[in-house]
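# step 3/5: fold
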Amino acid sequence: MEDGKPVWAPHPTDGFQLGTIVDIGADSLTIEPLKEKGKTFLAPVSQVFPAEDDINKHVEDNCSLMYLNEATLLNNVRVRYSKDKIYTYVANILIAVNPYYDIPKLYSPETIKQYQGRSLGTLPPHVYAIADKAYRDMKVLKMSQSIIVSGESGAGKTENTKFVLRYLTTSYGTGQDIDERIVEANPLLEAFGNAKTVRNNNSSRFGKFVEIHFNGKNTVVGGFVSHYLLEKSRICTQGQEERNYHVFYRLCAGAPEDIREKFHLSSPNCFRYLNRGCTRYFATKDTDQKVLQNRKSPEEKAARSRGDADASAGYVV
């Protein structure tokens, strides 16, 4: 790195900031931020990275960057995210950034058809492309394939897993009931392992291994789900703004009267394993009206939620 060259230097809140090198020391560099002309700061050489000539340029694959490092990768993802391009490749690895709102036509049936049989990189980065590559590799190599979905809470792991399942069953299913049953079983099973945390109303608090089974004609014929519960402690105690697993609240909200009487169900506030955390239901304006008053906590204020509404889920065991 040379004097006057644009570089990414560490920043306490933004991760990295753009600047130029004004002096080179033995093990540190003097950086002048582009947004604060006249001010300088010292940064360790190991934490300063060369920047692209055009920081507003973005590429679909981070490997196409002139300088591939932590700072340029993050900047490329940031620029793409600002343009509603939430998916970016690093070779055959897909980076996904949760937009927290719906992007029109991103997961439409038309989009599914576009990615069928297309090689990785011929179309914009997408979770459908990863699913299709796994399918084609299975078909050509005659070997089982795995897709690992990983990330922190709220990153979008659960939703992207659903999109993979939807893509495979829609594109390579038989068109019979089995395809829909595999996809629709997912929310039901998640009720026993998903819970509200401080950061995410529908956080998966367990590991999950999903198998999609194909026949000799490479058509979806079944599936199998293994769950590995990670947080047994959540069953008996929760944080103040967190909830137990969804299934308990759905029972309280939607169980038929005969079941409610048999198991003495009432509001979540009445149960020791629920009332030390958040006891609010997840409901939309319409579904909140379906919950009877004798099943609500005294100061119930339904938490608004786009999906996974307790009141609309009904009796789920």
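# step 4/5: annotate
The longest strand covers residues 15-24.
# step 5/5: archive (pending)
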